[in-house]
Design goal:
This protein is an all-alpha fold. It is built from 13 helices and no strands. One of its GO terms (molecular function) is glycerol channel activity.
Length: 314
């Protein structure tokens, strides 16, 4: 009965359009990323460090990305990042028609994830801020959702920061999913991709907190703009908001091109590799014939020379 009910539900509600299915996967994957990632920041900030620190934030985003890839990976590839989608588009691994759909789903998922974090910690927000939501100052909370530059950081250096960080992310992702490279064991790819975030977080987080994802930054920033923080979320940090959007897009393409030029282009062709193996075997056969006087035959040659009539099969 249960199986029949499940079959009926699937026949009635299951989506047939592949792009819609992939869009839903990107939405949910990005939602999970923000829920765990920004949730870890909220817990640290709102508790004033009592139940969190920088390391727990790194772990939150690492596991957020890992779970996001597990959630969406089998359906859409779990880009959960417009920079990754653009890199795949440039490499010819994503169709052009899917690109805007993926990006829209990612932004909406990030917006919804930020709303979920705000709802989860609403009372803690009110207690921490006394109901006054501000972008800068000692009780600022906007940085829970989006990145803002450190005092030392210039706009140019911030842009370079995002290009390098996102380039490293995309380059490492391509290495992990490259079947002709060492890659990662099947089913372990999400965990290893999550570890890239940990590596970036502990090495490139000083300047602006490693957003490296336009959806992860702009989606929650838009939420804060409408949820009470106001337009200051865009003007703060010398109009910083566009840096974590444009920088990662450039960085993703740079990382993809670097991996293509330095690694992927130089993989041996499958047919060529097979021909090389056959050539080696042929040389070995010739060596045996010359040195030992033996004739080396292939399986096909042996099949032709074998008299199957000699087998008495009744």
């Amino acid at each position: 009965m249960e199986r029949k009910t499940r079959r009926n539900l699937r026949e009635r509600f299951a989506l047939k359009n592949s792009i819609v299915k992939e869009a839903l996967a990107e939405f949910l994957g990005t939602f999970v990323l923000i829920l765990f990632g920004c949730g870890s920041v909220a817990q640290t900030v709102l508790s004033r460090g009592a139940v969190g620190e920088m390391l727990t934030i790194h772990i939150g985003f690492t596991l957020g990305v890992t779970m996001a890839v597990y959630v969406a990976g089998g359906v859409s590839g779990a880009h959960v990042n417009p920079a990754v989608s653009l890199a795949m588009l440039v490499l010819g691994k994503l169709k052009l028609v899917k690109f805007p759909v993926y990006v829209l789903a990612q932004f909406l998922g990030a917006f919804a994830g930020a709303a979920a974090v705000y709802g989860l910690y609403y009372d803690a927000f009110m207690d921490y801020t006394n109901g006054i939501l501000i972008v800068t100052g000692p009780n600022a909370t906007a940085h829970i959702f989006a990145s803002y530059p450190g005092r030392h950081l210039s706009i140019l250096n911030g842009f370079i920061d995002q290009v390098i960080g996102t380039g490293a992310l995309v380059l490492c992702i391509l290495a992990i999913v490259d079947g002709k490279n060492n890659g990662a064991p099947k089913g372990m790819e999400p965990l290893v991709i999550g570890l890239i975030i940990m590596a970036i977080g502990v090495s490139m987080g000083l300047n602006c907190g490693y957003p490296i994802n336009p959806a992860r930054d702009l989606g929650p920033r838009l939420f804060t703009a409408v949820a009470g923080w106001g337009r200051d979320v865009f003007s703060a940090g010398r109009n910083w908001w566009w840096i974590p959007v444009s920088g990662p897009l450039v960085g993703g393409v740079v990382g993809a091109v670097l991996y293509l030029l330095f690694i992927e282009l130089h993989h041996a062709e499958p047919q060529k590799h097979l021909e090389e193996e056959n050539s080696v075997k042929e040389k070995k056969c010739r060596k045996i014939t010359v040195d030992g006087g033996l004739k080396c035959k292939t399986f096909e040659e042996l099949s032709r020379s074998f008299d199957f009539r000699s087998l008495n099969m009744k």
